[in-house]
## 1
Amino acid sequence: MELVTVIMPTYNSAATLKQALDSITNQTYRPIEIITIDDASDDDSHAIAKAYAQQHTTQDLQFVTLSNNENAGAGITRNKGVEHATGTYIAFLDADDLWKPHKLTTQINAMKSHNATVCYGAYEIFKTTPKQPIAIHNISKKLTYDKLHKANYLGNLTGIYNAEVLGKVAIPSLRKRQDWAMWLDVLKKANHAIGIQEPLASYRLSDGLSANKMELIKHNYAVYRKHLGYSAIKSCWNMLLFFYEQFLVKKSMIEKL
């Protein structure tokens, strides 16, 4: 079986980190390399990650625990993990989200069956406990670059790509929405991603910046303007298309429970 590298940035994640790591070590798939990168936390996140690694390292479950000297943001922090990754496949999980136990097995089997280099999946959304999800984010069986360009349909906690075939893909140095920009770069190489329509993960809905829709408008704009290098006019036009796709099309794919 090919090695899967899981990259997990941490920042003041002490309350949720162990549960997130448990969801990786409880995977039915092996072997796995887990790389945690602490972004200069004010709490014990890095110490928790190091202790967890010492307790759970086995022949087919390896850990790398890294840290930043100063807070650098999620993009730079994830990139440090990409640089150290040695797996055939690269996947991502934030320290407050969770994977279903069959997540990696299901995706690797599907990628091999369809000769695919990128895979993503549906996921549940919860507020207090993953046992009581409030919604399911459904997906399509196939995601093209053009579709992803219109809005971010690929939940980073479900994405996985074959780095041996596509090469390692760097995360852009955007403060927010860098995951969307990265998956655009991945699909530009891969052409499309295959979708697993059963929930593979659980996303924790927070009350922070990620929930502030108005604040995120400028970060979405930056993907078109700064990352893709579009003119201001072209970026604004794509933002109009984004609003249509996000609020009239993508919103309909979220099934409330």
Note: The radius of gyration is 17 Å.
## 2
Amino acid sequence: MEKASSNPAFALEICIDSVASAMAAEQGGAQRVELCDYLAGGGTTPSAGMISLVRASISLPLHVLIRPRRGDFLYSTAEMEIMKRDIQVCRDLGADGVVIGLLTKDGTIDLTRTEELIRCAGPLSVTFHRAFDLTRDPLAALDDLLKLNVDRLLTSGQEATALQGVPLLWELQERAAGKLIIMPGSGVNPANVREIMASTGVSEIHASVRRKVEGEMVFRKDYPPMSSYSPLSEFEQQIADVTQIRQVRVALDEIQCSTSSPLTTCNPGLD
């Protein structure tokens, strides 16, 4: 198993949608998980049962996505009430943080409603998610998030992947000046994590790094489909890949070792 420090300088958050992926994240050396449902649609809020069992299955900090539906991030009054109630459920079930994102119809951060949800979250950590990547002016949006005192921003730098978004990620990191955590996400993997970290100066990274696994059904039918769109067969699912998680964790530790004092003992690697 990877030899990582208990409090590494570079934190790895894994996006998960199952108990199996939660356990893989912990085994792989992640520092935190973001729990979602329906990742094929960009993620929605998981069930209370899922939150409860994931909380009971791992000791890692658990952040939960608060998103009542797929699609855009302009929400109705009813959807706001759903999110408030879901945040309360997360608090009751022992989550450590929530992940939110609300925009106005004009593509700016919805300051009023975001502040409402922050108040609902109380002491929980608050991350603003990739709704940020659909804002019309990312620097103005960052300034709004700084005013709201959110803890963290998950962003791809307004590109399809974090690697493509490196120029804006670097600019956001400089502008934030440590007042909130800039956490790159989207397409992060063992092959590109070193470049992303080195090029942006961030201290946290968000990844999914999943692999396909075969289901255990013996009797199988290809028709009728159980969803309107499925890039996987009905007998496949995706779970977090322990090996890739460890590889990303090792890469982060190697970066830390390379910047540490010569007197610091570093042992990145796998058993």
Note: The chain is about 35% helix and 15% strand.
## 3
Amino acid sequence: MKQGWSYLSPAECLALRGSERALLLDNVLRDHLAAWRFAYRGVSHALSVSGIAQVLKAINDIGLNEGLTPANERVWKHLVLGVTVHEFMPDGHKHSVTVPLLDFAEPARNRLQVTEELSVEREGGHGRFRPDIVLYVNGIPLAVIEAKRPTGSHAEKLMLAEGVSQHLRNQKPDGIPALYAYAQLLLSISGQDGKYATTETPSKFWAMWREEEIPAADIDAIVNARLTAQQHSALFAERPAHVRAFFNGLWSKPVAATDRIGS
């Protein structure tokens, strides 16, 4: 949230999804697409209703029946290369337009939202799985985080392994593989440690996260930034008072970045 992500409560996120089977925030993505413009013969145009519908169909039809990795690769191509749609222009010509799902040139134009305890119905109706944290960009779930609390001696590594195990369980055919078709980054975090990977990465290839591009001073500034009153209210609105008090106390003093993140 300190880096510009808006918090969505589980209830708010579910309302935007429409059901526990749905994963995309269709209206968020629709709004992003409606604001985008393309040039045709020197004139700026918005996507038509049909053009937006074509993009939504492409990002919804990911071909999971062909396998999780091929579906994930298809989503990756849409994210990196855009989605090509056909528009009928005012002069009667049919025009091909490649529509970006993410704005790489001006990142501030992307809508960043984070939610927790994302309840997703399992394939075959076998109950639900609830990943701890999910990050949405323009209504598309691009990162999934399992956050485990360390308990006892040497527990961090055990809890990291548990988080990885949950990711792998969730990706199985009777789990929630559709979420992992969209996700481009997976994290397991506990205490001061974190491991990351991509969809269908075996557990032995998950890597420790070490930040190499952001200076330590910049990381410290992010960690110690204050939430706005609005952010604070949104984050704690549905939490017990003792949780709010704990974090208020924690944030009243300087917080140090972990060695893993700051190295």
Note: The radius of gyration is 20 Å.
## 4
Amino acid sequence: MRKILVVTGTRAEYGLLYWTMERINEDNELELQLIVTGNHLVSEYGYTVETIKKDGFKIDEEIDMMINSNKKSGIAKSMGLELIQMAQAFDKLKPDLMLILGDRYEIFIAATCAMIMNIPIAHMNGGESTEGAIDEQMRHAITKMAHIHFPGAEYYKERIIKMGEEPWRVFNVGQAGIENIKRLKLLNKKQLEEELDINLDKKIFIITYHPVTLDVENIGQQVDNLLKAISRFDALYIFTYPNADFGSEIIINKIKKFVKENSNANIFYNLGQKRYLSLLKYADVMIGNSSSGIIESPIFKLPVVNIGDRQKGRLKNKNIIDTTYSESEIYSGIYKALYDKKFRDNLEYMENVYGDGTTSKQVVHIFKSIDINKKLISKKLTY
């Protein structure tokens, strides 16, 4: 039986991996192994390891590596702790292949460790671009370490090949977030109100703002501008927590203060996949700089006000309204999303560039059919 090790560090990434993990778990020819690390083990971010357990997955190792620090060196030290524990876990589990998704530092360390230990790496969501974040360098570094590539669109497949990766290693399987939406039975509006204990009787703003890691000095002003812009609308503000990157504490503190001062504002550590996607279904606009706005929102024809440079370079559907960090541009973007009839009408005919929602089926087929041998491990450049 072929052992497939999945490493996950955040709630968002776990949500994207869920159906592939489930399909691996159900397959008679594959064995799912699971390492949980990063934000999943931090109480301030919802301690989402409990969500994974409730979903019925057996966790083989929990790697607690987060150092609470306001210095940039805190993340680097956390990465060092993770590397030591990851190597020990790999020695114990002896996986045949590792599956990872995305571009965060927890995943970069998992890839580094697997590469050194000659464990084949399958990487989802490579070939993308987020020019305003350190994730950009992380993602491309992981691509060069990986042996199998699962990009989420044909354009990203072509980019990976242009990076010198051999074409036979690269499979366009679509974005996993599309499958989440198609396979989950979402909550209706009444159920959602009961679960969240809020009335969804106003225009609904879903807001997720992550630190822009290449511009951390201006995070405070960026968040202030965002909060001032949304305050000009009579709406229900639903905030979700940012990633645990340097600068996230500034964002959290400002949002908490805003929520305390506004009865129509709410903040959630962890909505969970079903509640989050159900909210997207009923929301009027999504605001911030989350990859969810790029990937998952198009399924719901949901307008997205994408702020700043964090998602710069990503392939975007027609529902995205890009703005700078200024209050006036954010306000104008929201106004267009809500009241520009031509813009909203065009969303009805929008084709999604991110696939048909069969990601897990394609990935598992490849895991079962690909040869794990010297050819797979020994990479070479092609141009």
Note: The radius of gyration is 20 Å.
